[in-house]
Amino acid sequence: MSFFNTIVLILTILGSLTLFLYGMKLMSESLQKIGGNSLRGIFSLIASNRVRAIASGLVVTAVIQSSTTVTVMLVSFTNAGFFTLTQALGLMMGANIGTTITAWLVSYFGFNFDLSVILLPILGLTLPLLFFPSASKRSIGEFLVGFAILFLGLQFLKNSLPDISGNTRLLGMIAGISDYGIGSALLFALAGIVITVIVRASSATIALTMVMCHNGWISYDDAAAMVLGENIGTTLTANIAAIVANRSAKRLALGHTLFNVFGSTWVLVFFSFFVGLSADAATAITGYSPLQNIDAVPIGISVFHTGFNLLNTLLLAGFIPLFRKLLETIIPLRPNEKKNFSLKYISPGYLSLSEMSIMQAKEEIHVFGKHVAFMFSLIPEYLIEKREKKYEKLRKRIYRCEEQADEMEAEIRNFLTRTAEEDLSESGSRKISSMLKIIDDIESMADQCMQMERTINRKNIENAWFTQEMRDDVNQLFGLVKEAIDNMNLNLSQDYRPGILAKASETELRINELRDRLLHENNLRVETGESTYQKASFFSSLVSQCEKLGDHIINVNQAIASNAK
Q: What domains can be seen in the chain, in order of their start residue?
């Protein structure tokens, strides 16, 4: 083969893989749009039951059709504190099983049927769906387009790999590599790792392995060894995502790698037995042995892939608590490091997490709300503190909270902006818009707390001390504002829904009524000489700032209600 023909062949294979990957990406994104809310429901049922966690990971991965998407998502959610490490490990094990469904789809439809005859008609029938006003109909159309492109890519891949049965030199080289027993298995497993690290999608590399074996490039044993390596290689993306995450997320990413490395190791010890077992199972299903008939190869590889992940999960599921302790030992907390969580934003690459990223943002916004609630809780203490050291310590904490609030708002806004650039459903776009409004108002709440600090500090510098009656009045208003913030955070922690405005509006009305009464009584104290104008001015500023803070709280609640499903 000439150099030019070799280059064309390589590019043709890469082009076929590109079609396959793009089809898988399109299917994954459209399924997220169609089933995003259902997936959130599945995740919410996890609790601490490891069986339910494994089942949830399996179902979600089977629906999304991408274990890489799910594992990157799990790293993010664990980083944000949405899952415990124990729950996430169970979900990860289930995701490993769920991803094998893609191999079954490819082996059954891509090799047993000539889909090239029907793929273009499928695209033709899909065309009207892409122009429907309904977002769900368009998502179904995108899913069908992705399905067609994926199998077109597989068809091109099968046709682009040349038949090497007559190339004795190349066959001899491959046979030479295959003659080292367990050493050959290790070499092909390493090849599987490298290819998956490059392609960053185990489903695509397993499909490539099927085609190579089906076309006679490698033996069935070699293909099975490559599958083991591909299961290890697919863990790279989650580890990249965890680089900027906290230690809990790093533990999960490492756990994903150790899980697959451990499984591949013990399977390699009994490699010949498991290869024979998968071949017998494929023979029972198809009537042909993949060791002798290339038509049975895809089913055999699917059996091996599923069996590996299923057996590995069954073996390790009972040891999740011990597995967690091992990971905590390998990646311990640093000295004086608190077990708190803060969402770090990742770039998962070509696999879009746009719809599921909304769930991440929701959790982080709730953390933001709790942060501002803590900041406000410092104000009443700051108002009455007379000890200089304690007063300065509180003052610095309030300033630090304000700086952190600005950083959180900027990070969440950037994350939401990046997510909005993806291809979102109409519901997802509305949620992004509402969330941007929510974080703007929460940040404004922090600004109001900062204004209160400045008012109190100026009051103290000018020795304008409040009477006990004035302090009691302000504390009464503080109590109402705290009640409103607590209710807001409760609404942020739950599914966004209509019907939350009744209590929020009632508390806002009480804040406004109390503000009016306090300002009226403040004016009376000045008129009767019970208070100086200086004291009354500071008192009036604090009351007005509390009321403005209440306005931002009701704005957040209104945005939550408009964001409801």
A: 3-330 (no CATH), 354-562 (1.20.58.220)
